[in-house]
Design a protein that fits this description.
Two copies of one chain form a homodimer. By secondary structure, chain A is α/β, with parallel strands linked by helices. Chain A has helices at residues 2-9, 13-24, 28-41, 61-74, 103-106, 129-138, 153-159, 174-184, 201-216, 240-256, 259-286, 288-302, 308-319; strands at 49-54, 79-85, 111-117, 143-148, 164-169, 190-193, 228-231. In chain A, helix 2 packs antiparallel against helix 6 and helix 12 packs antiparallel against helix 13. The longest helix of chain A has 28 residues, at 259-286.
């Protein structure tokens, strides 16, 4: 196991891949090994900046990540890309599963790309994404991109994993602006307005101005950096310098005013709570005694011996050993 | 409270609306009242058939529900429509929030339409949707449509609430067919191929044939009804008779071979487990002692006195009172 640690710290790709498979595993022996490995790696932190990406479907999120990823890699940075993929049981599909789209940057030896399916049953958390970021950090990667597919819980998960949270948007109407404002300012450090090209260029430019003025209402905290707005064209590779400049600015300002460390501390608390929640739910699900009690209570409800809420109380009290 | 019960059983709309608001509430006193009310209503079951709808974006799900809903209402059935809406914190939007789309059927006095936001924090479960269906059933509604917005957990939630689970699809390629097959046969009783109109008609027809032959591989269980495939045009109101016929067939066959009751029993077990999970998570989150311990452990991790997994074990053991 410690040999694996050394190989990761040496940046060996096969070791990184093996370690990520390990942290994604739900086999009990793998979990034990995974905890050992992560506990060791966390003692050898690197300097990676974690950047999250989210945005509504159709705004060209993957195209932007490919374009900006290539830009980053061409500047000789090492880049890891992790996707949290809440693929539906029914209609699911992974963005990174579609390898062709990430083809350009995936060929580079300084990139490591991984798509992790989230486990819907545990509330949309991608098992192992946090740990995969720790592995890539220890392996000396400069940037770790964390991409979320879809909406809701996976966005919150991603926001709680990163130093910079990026929202990618398209040239859009005022209506979309209204929708997007609610809640977003809490998480997004930067808005990237994509599709600043061809027929859409003037609309993209107007959208960026609209976001700037809308966001100015929310940027009241004088200490914190205002939310950045950058106009890009992923297909024409325009605006990539500005994005990197904004990222550097966000990191520098947040480090200077202690927000950078503070955020990582808050995220640690978030993940510790998640770990506790998931372990408790796992225990609830796997305990034979609980499932037998559940079955018995269901039978009792059906024959009218108890009610739904009384039955749930019996099970909870038993599980919490308070009865 | 019991007056509210009587008014619901009499089918009074204002009482139904009030009761649904009550079951969606997270206020402690409302929860107590809600449990009382539901425990009473469940003793006066009606005859409602619960039908779930899901499908990828862009297939015309809302248009179909409006078209088929009108058809149902025009046949003098009472129709309730509940939407589970996992609206994103960032980009969310409710299908039924857009009232204009449901305008035709929402005006009818025999329909009751309600959109319930899901609470992402508890794993995408729409708090109160199960209870809202119990209310509408007790109020004498004939059909309760449960629509899921988006993918993943909310589809599983909906599938566990209904007697018939409908997947709406568009005229599509073989690729989509591949994607959709995985997992779906476990849940869907019927595939509705929409957009059998205009230029898309021949493609829709071909898609329906493709689904039929693809599904024939999965329909191996001789006792169970094969998955139905129906071709419709929502904008031309074509195929609505066939949909209702298929629904009747599904209900009749499943009642005859005992699958109808068996499914409701399994769903009861699912919801009882959900109730237990949610209550335990709520307790974990609201206990002052736990949150203080969490904070303390985070500080200890930061200064290197403990590790992430050791800290989580301490909190779990304390919560389960086993230490």
């Amino acid at each position: 196991m410690m040999k694996l640690r050394d190989r990761i710290i040496a940046g060996e790709r096969a070791a990184i891949a093996k370690a990520i498979t390990l942290v994604e595993s739900s086999r009990e022996e793998d979990i034990i090994q995974s905890h050992e490995l992560i506990s060791e790696l966390i003692k050898s932190p690197g300097h990676a900046i974690r950047v999250g990406f989210s945005g509504p479907p159709g705004v060209g999120k993957s195209t932007f990540i490919e374009s900006f990823g290539s830009y980053i890699v061409n500047k000789n940075f090492k880049l890891g890309v992790l996707a949290i993929d809440p693929s539906s049981n029914f209609t699911g599909g992974s963005i990174l599963g579609d390898k062709t789209r990430m083809s350009e940057i995936s060929k580079n030896e300084n990139t490591f790309i991984r798509s992790t399916p989230s486990r819907g049953s545990l509330g949309g958390i991608a098992v192992g994404t946090r740990e995969a970021a720790i592995i890539l950090d220890a392996a000396g990667y400069d940037y770790i991109f964390i991409e979320t597919v879809g909406v809701g819980q996976s966005e919150i998960t991603a926001a709680n994993l990163v130093d910079i949270f990026t929202l990618i948007v398209g040239p859009g109407s005022g209506d979309e602006l209204q929708g997007i404002k609610k809640g977003i300012t809490e998480y997004a450090d930067i808005f990237i307005v994509n599709k600043n090209d061809g027929d859409l260029a003037s609309q993209a430019s107007k959208t960026a101005s609209d976001y700037k003025s809308a966001l100015s209402f929310y940027n009241k905290d004088s200490d914190a950096l205002e939310t950045q707005v950058v106009l890009v064209s992923s297909i024409e590779n325009k605006g990539m310098d500005e994005v990197l400049d904004s990222y550097n600015k966000i990191v520098n300002v947040n480090k200077a005013n202690n927000q950078f460390d503070k955020r990582r501390e808050n995220q640690l608390a978030y993940w510790l709570e998640e770990e506790v929640r998931n372990k408790i739910l796992l225990k609830l699900r796997s305990e034979k005694e609980t499932s037998e009690l559940l079955e018995r209570e269901v039978r009792r409800i059906i024959v009218g011996e108890t009610g739904f809420y009384a039955a749930s109380k019996v099970i909870i009290d038993r599980f919490l050993s308070k009865k």
